[in-house]
Amino acid sequence: MEESQFEIPPLTQEKVLELIEQAYPNPVTPEDLAKDNGWNEADVLQVIISLQNRGLIKSMAYNSYTRIHHEDKDIKVVQQMPTIASNKQPTIAIITAQYCEKLAVDAMLENKETFVRYTTVDSDSRQNTLRKSSEKLLNGLDRNWHRKRRFGESNVYTLGNIGAHRIVSTKLPSVGSTREAMTATGNTTTRLLGTFQKVDYIFIVGVAGGVPHYTDYKRHVRLGDVVIASSEKSRNIINGNANRKNGPYIYVYGNGEEIQTYYPKNDCLQSLAESLRADPQGKKPWEHYLKEGLLHLQNRTETIFDRPAPNTDKLYMNIGNHEVIEVAHPQPTDAVDGIPATRIHLGPIGSGRDLIRSDNLRTEFAKKHNLLATDVEMSSVLDSVIGNCRDSFILVKGISDYKDGTTTKKWQNFASLAAAAVMKSIICAMDAPTNV
């Protein structure tokens, strides 16, 4: 298990593109990629040239590269955000962690305008950062020192409309449980809320791993479904969060014995999600928005967002001794032509270190906290949201695997689009803003 952490991934165009997309909007260099993954820098450069020739990435300053966005010609590169008129200030922020999630969210917006701020470090700062980072490297604290000596934390903001609401969407530069990733996600969130101070509502939208139920279809969370972080208010728990003892929670983060839970002071978004799912007329607006988003993306990007074939949704059961067997899904009651409908589930979502590497730990953690999904590290984002006094937040996660949403790419695009469609359904059900 320990050795797998140092396994050198195969050097392919797909892998390099994935890493560049993960870092977006931060540019990366061949040196960065080679050092971080144990590759030869000259070989990495050849792969990058191939990706450039395919029109997927572009060169930047300091021998760095970034992803070419499908609406790249409309992106404005700025040193700082321009002043936005009061009546055009966004009141809703949408945070994504992966490139495909950002594409899916932006497909739901109208009248889009994207700004990218590349934060390069000036000469004196580079020397100071190099000195400090070298000290960190010697202490084994920071393996990405070489990237930080050239770049700060870049930001991407897309402004647009959903119905009567002004929206800003962004993408986190990195996610995970490392100190650097948690600091970067927290900083990005804090910078977002500092830049757009009229934002009252936060949506965290993307993919997650479903917690399946092997016998009960109503409780079964499968690929292509969407889990909205919600809570049973009557549930009482005892946990390690002094501010949330004996209260409801929509998100749980576990780190060993330490348990942190999260619940918004204002749960209006959760109430809207509940009414959306329980619509007496059986309306499912997300299905319409999903089709619209799919059509939009088909015309504008080479990335495929179609729903994968049903037979690619394999369900396995752990039978102990590190052995698993494939089992059948509970029989759906709402399948159309044999294709299960995208269903909405409401319940807690969680994350924690080591949960992804251990099926047993993840299963126990999910059972203990009644989780419907587990995702990549989002606790630092939620810490920033709460620390910046935002009282309404919600997570909307499309299910793309049965771990954390990132272990396979087959369902990620469709799951991202399904989550974005449900997000749009919630936003369209909100009252028009009055604080503009």
From TrEMBL:
Checking InterPro entries in the record gives:
HTH_69, Nucleoside_phosphorylase_sf
Q: What Pfam families does UniProt report for this protein, alphabetically?
A: HTH_69
Question: One biological process GO term for this chain?
Answer: nucleoside metabolic process
Domain Winged helix-turn-helix, by residue range, is 10-68
Molecular function as annotated in GO: catalytic activity
Q: Name it.
A: Winged helix-turn-helix domain-containing protein
- Species assigned in the record: Hermetia illucens (Black soldier fly)
